[in-house]
Amino acid sequence: MEKYFTEQPRDFLAVATPGAGKTTFALSVAAELLGRRIIDRVTVVAPTEHLKTQWAQAAERAGIPIDPTYAAGKGRTSQDYVGIAVTYAGVAVNPLAMRIRTERFKTLVILDEVHHAGDALSWGEGVREAFEPATRRLALTGTPFRSDVNPIPFVSYAPGPDGIPRSAADYTYGYSHALADHVVRPVLFLAYSGEMSWRTRAGDEVAARLGEPLTKDLTNQALRTALDPEGSWIPSVLAAADKRLSEVRRHVPDAGGLVIATDQDSARSYAKTLRKITGESATVVLSDEKAASKKISAFAADESRWMVAVRMVSEGVDVPRLAVGVWATTTSTPLFFAQAVGRFVRARTRGEIASIFLPSVPRLLSFASEMEVERDHVLGRKVTDEDDIFAAEDDLLAQANASESASSEEQSLSFEAIGSEARFDHVLYDGATFGHEGEVQVGSEEEMDFLGIPGLLEPGQMRDLLRQRQSDRARKQKPAVAAAAPAVPSVEQVSTHEQLAVLRRELNGLVAAWFHRTGQAHGITHAALRKECGGPAAAIANAEQLRARIDRVREWAARKSG
Fold first, then answer.
1. Could you give the CA distance from residue 230 to residue 228 in angstroms, rounded to a whole number?
2. Which residues pair with 12 in a beta bridge?
């Protein structure tokens, strides 16, 4: 505020982490400018319909009545309103009508999540044409900018050390700053791996372990198998997330959880699973439903446990009581990750912790470990790879404002999940990894060491507790292993499911060793073993079939050594 009113700029870009208070800042500026008669109207441009309503509600509390139902070309609004709220898509439909309104009044334009104005086609052009005459323009964003050749209207660019223009923010308030000021929550990421098996379009059955080094295609297929509602992975992770939510609610009674789903069918299936786990109905939010905004508002105000949303409700959606999240979507871009995590970091009480359950996918884990990295908008480089920072944004935004119902049907044409099982992998906190040695079963005491962490802890206390639980478990395991060493049961002496788990672990370890030795992908090795030894995928193979594959891969290793 001090910087803004000292410099009195026509254009101002504030980059602040989700939950840091961008809305409060913008409305405070608007109120001050109205009071000084510098402006007499306010126009808010938001990415989605729901955010228009949310801005109108926040503005009302600040004493600035805004019409969220205004549409370009509508003409006048009631004299009770000081401003309007529109979407970027709405501006693009009729930028001339918005320009005429902007010219008629001394207008402050608030561009919420302004990176959307850099989208291709008509959005950026519409924003530039509509708001060129504005008296003041205040741009806000809380997520990484897109990286391409489309400049964002009304954003300044300056050459970097490499000579490539980069966006220049007038004020930046990153996640690390907000964390130090206790205005956002620290995030505890809980990663889950496990055995996956699926059938490809060609009819081949593939088995792989989520989290192991795999090709990009195999990683995507393994992730889709894990998220299949008919498998065992997602119900196990949802049950673990609900245990975590119960622990958090002991200290924060109204804490809620959000499952981010890929498509409508999955969202409904996850809601059914949560009902079985909790005995309570989950709120299902589909963005093409007219009642979506009301459902979100109702969930934000009540004390129910879970909400399931297709991919993401939207950036900027404000449900401060969200404390536990489950990443159950195949979408994995940096922008989307930042938007999603932003739903959980808004702090209300000092000591609150956000807990997010992730599949052990390298991209997602790298995003989690780089949460404090600040990014600027880079010009002069085209998006040519879908892994690029913003390549999927156009599709994501179309999905957020339209129907997602066809996505699951398209995927099912080329892919069929066979089976999955979940294993607790590790916890990622403040860039450090914490976990236990060996394979940790879902529902075990080792898993509860982390699920049972109190819901209110200072960041330093959280770090100390994680280290303590890890070291305590390690100390307990060493004497137990030493005492049990003379009488370790053979594979044949344990129960059937334990026997199969031991054999699968041994097989996966040998396949991983073969990968490091030869560079052959895990899925290809599993497929070759099945071809030579027969039988189904490893996740559903019997003990005899698993032993045959173990012997065969050892034969390969001996032959190669010879």
1. 5
2. 138
**What is the residue whose two structure tokens read 């400049």?**
151
- Rounded distance between C-alpha atoms, residue 321 and residue 141, angstroms: 22
Report in angstroms the alpha-carbon separations of 374 from 22, 142, 153. Answer: 17, 10, 21
Decide if pLDDT at 288 tops 80. Answer: no
**List of residues 6+ apart from 431 with CB closer than 8 A:** 369, 372
The confidence band for 560, taking pLDDT boundaries of 50, 70 and 90, is low
pLDDT at residue 446 is higher than 70? yes
Cβ 213 vs Cβ 434: under 8 Å: no
Task: Calculate the alpha carbon distances from 141 to 22, 60, 103, 145, 165 in Å.
Answer: 8, 22, 25, 8, 19
Q: Report the alpha-carbon distance of residue 356 to residue 345 in Å, rounded.
A: 10
Contacts of 533 (CB under 8 A, 6+ apart): 545, 548, 549, 552
Average pLDDT over residues 124-152: 80
> What is the spatial distance between Cα 108 and Cα 504, in angstroms, rounded to a whole number?
63
CB of 144 closer than 8 Å to CB of 336: no
Question: Cβ atoms within 10 A of the Cβ of 309, count?
Answer: 25
- Which of 380, 365, 401 lies closest to 190, judged by CA? 365
Sign of CA dihedral 438, 440, 446, 449: positive
- Using CA atoms, how far residue 185 sits from 251, 292, 321, 328, in Å, is 15, 26, 12, 22
Do 89 and 130 form a contact (C-beta atoms < 8 A)?
A: no
For helices 543-561 and 496-518, angle between their N-to-C axes, nearest 10 degrees: 20
Q: Whose structure tokens read 């935004």? A: 397
Closest CA to 339 of 117, 91, 146: 146
DSSP-assigned beta bridge partners for residue 45: 86, 111
Residue that the structure tokens 């390298």 belong to: 362
Q: What letter represents residue 521's amino acid? A: A
How remote is the C-alpha of 171 from its chain's centroid? Answer: 25
Contact 537, 206 (CB under 8 A): yes
Q: pTM for the whole thing?
A: 0.69
Q: What is the residue type of 215?
A: T
- Say which DSSP state 344 is in: T
Tell me the pLDDT tens digit for each residue of 52-81. Answer: 888 999 999 999 999 998 876 666 778 889
The two beta strands, 171-173 and 165-167, are unpaired
Cα dist. 200→87, 109, 160, 229 in Å? 41, 51, 46, 18
